[in-house]
Amino acid sequence: MLEQALLADDHGSLARQLDELAVAYSSGDVSRAAILALAADEWRQAGQPARALECFQRAVDDGGESGIDPRAGIADTLFELDRPGEAREIIETLRVEGTATPATAHNIAETLVAYGDLQGGLEWATQAVLTCAEDDPEHVALLRTRYRIRLDLGLPEDELDSLIS
């Protein structure tokens, strides 16, 4: 299903199929929340951010494991819908909670950078690098994102930048 829709570049069809799967899904190797987050990503790719927002919210409500906290997807989608105040409230909630995984923090850093907040993106990337285990696959990706942001800000290389191999 996934492969066919991706080859056809039919994100809307894939989003619908994932959405339907999430409704019918009872249990398995993946959580319903993860399926809903995938559906939300596909709705965004299909140019339907309002439907994506609804799927991300259903993933939050489901409460299952989804890799990246669906609230990060909600924040990104709210920025896309030109609702930056609401997006920043969600990001602040995640910051205050202090429970964001490295993957979630990376997603938030990239979102902030995409919407012009380089300093905010740097803060999220730096905090994530500092709390991420070196053997975590996300560690190198975070270091690279952080380095790219620092370059965009015109900052000199620092100790963390030197860890990029």
Task: Walk me through this protein's architecture.
The protein has two domains: 1-66; 84-165. It is mainly alpha-helical and 165 residues long. It has helices at residues 2-7, 11-24, 32-45, 49-62, 70-80, 84-97, 102-114, 118-131, 137-153. Helix 3 runs antiparallel to helix 4 and helix 4 (49-62) runs antiparallel to helix 5 (70-80). It is globular and about 50 Å long. It contains nine helices and no strands.
Backbone CA Rg:
17 Å
Q: How many beta-strand runs?
A: 0
Q: Residue ranges: pLDDT <50 for 5 or more in a row?
A: none
Residue fraction in strands: under 5%
Mean residue pLDDT: 88
Q: Tell me roughly what share of residues is in helical segments.
A: over 70%
Structural class: mainly alpha
Shape: globular
Number of distinct helices? 9
Secondary-structure element series:
HHHHHHHHH
**Main sheet attributes: strand count, strand direction, barrel closure:** none
- Distance from first to last alpha carbon: 37 Å
Tally the structural domains: 2
Protein name: Tetratricopeptide repeat protein
InterPro entries: TPR-like_helical_dom_sf
